[in-house]
Amino acid sequence: MSTAMKPEFEVVRRNRVYEEVAKQIERLILKKLQPGDKLPSERDLAEMLRVSRGSIRDAIRSLELLGLVEARQGTGTIVRETSSSSLANPFANALKRRKELVSELLDFRKMLEPPLAARAAAHASPEEVVEMEDILRRQEERQHQGDAAVAEDAEFHYSIALASDNSVVLKVIDTVMDLLRDTRARSLQVEGRPEKSLKGHRRILAAIKRHDAEAAKDAMRRHLEDVEEIVLNKF
Q1: C-alpha dist (Å) from residue 84 to 25, 34, 87, 170
Q2: Residue 177 pLDDT
Q3: What is the model's pTM?
Q4: 34 — phi, psi (to 5°)?
Q5: Residue 97's domain spans which residues?
Q6: Helix 167-179 / helix 150-163 crossing angle, nearest 10 deg
Q7: I need a labelling partner for 33 at 20 to 30 A (CA). Which of 50, 64, 116, 184 fits?
Q8: Rounded Cα–Cα distance for residues 157 and 132 (Å)
Q9: In whole angstroms, what is the distance from residue 17 CA to residue 56 CA?
Q10: Secondary structure of the chain: what % helix, strand, coil (to 5)?
């Protein structure tokens, strides 16, 4: 790591750490780096700024949404070419980038989760079915209390990933859910969305209980299409 970069940073002591981290990395990009240059590694940035690697990841994600950097598999995080319009109106650019990211994540869910629901219909144990029923019971109770039941909404999808009998996909689902966490919370505030979500979950669970893989797959696809329509209209 070049020592020339170190003076560009200050030790971070803020409550919302990732925002200050993002500002400092952005200053480095604008002052020192060129399009195509590689950012220091997460570990090096965390050591220089004395923050966690999680804060570094959150900061870089926010810079991705602004279109300043791009994560490349096997290469690292690369500085992107920035247009004058994106620098003049970063908020509008961030919204555009965020909508594109959310759309791609929702599309990925449609590729992944319907087959998982089908596998759950074939593999779910009686105990796992009981757990799903309990999640939906709690989801309904919280909705009656005026709560959007964001946690239960995510938990139901986790339970299907668990019941699909594949430990790797649970980690993938966890990552996708984390990326969509804020989007889910906002969309569940839309009138009628929590009830529609619960109804979709019940259709999925009914098919799983019948061990009807094709029906579970179709129910999950229909549910995700409903979610996609509401979420993208929200932006």
Answers
A1: 19, 15, 5, 41
A2: 78
A3: 0.59
A4: -120, 160
A5: 93-234
A6: 160
A7: 50
A8: 9
A9: 9
A10: 70, 5, 25
State the CB neighbour count (10 A cutoff) for residue 111. Answer: 9
- Mark residue 166 as left, alpha or beta (left: phi above 0; alpha: psi -120 to 50; beta: remaining): beta
51 occurs within a structural domain: yes
State the residue for tokens 């999680």: 54
Note the pLDDT tens digit of each residue in 138-192: 999 999 998 888 889 889 999 999 998 777 888 788 778 777 777 777 777 777 8
Close Cβ partners of 41 (under 8 Å, ≥ 6 residues apart): 76
CA 102, CA 91: separation in Å to the nearest integer? 16
Instruction: Specify whether 106 is located in the same domain as 218.
Output: yes
Single-letter code of the amino acid located at 77 = T
Report the CATH number at residue 98: 1.20.120.530
Q: What does the alpha-carbon distance between residue 42 and residue 77 come to, in Å, rounded to a whole number?
A: 9
The answer to whether residues 102 and 183 touch, using CB atoms and an 8 Å cutoff, is: yes
Q: What does the alpha-carbon distance between residue 29 and residue 45 come to, in Å, rounded to a whole number? A: 13
With a CB cutoff of 8 Å and minimum separation 6, the contacts of 106 are 180, 224, 227, 228, 231, 232
SS3 133: helix
Does residue 223 contact residue 202 with C-beta atoms inside 8 Å? no
> How many structural domains compose the chain?
2
